[in-house]
Amino acid sequence: MSPNVELLELALRDEARARDPWQRPEQVIEWLALRGEETVVDLGAGTGYFSYRIARALPRGKVLAVEPDAELRALIQAQARHHQLPIQVEAQAPAAAERVFACNMLRHLNLGQGPECDHWVVIDFDPERAPELAEVPPRAHLQTIAQVEAQLPGHRRVITRALPRQYYLELSRQA
Question: What is the spatial distance between Cα 67 and Cα 45, in angstroms, rounded to a whole number?
Answer without folding.
Answer: 5
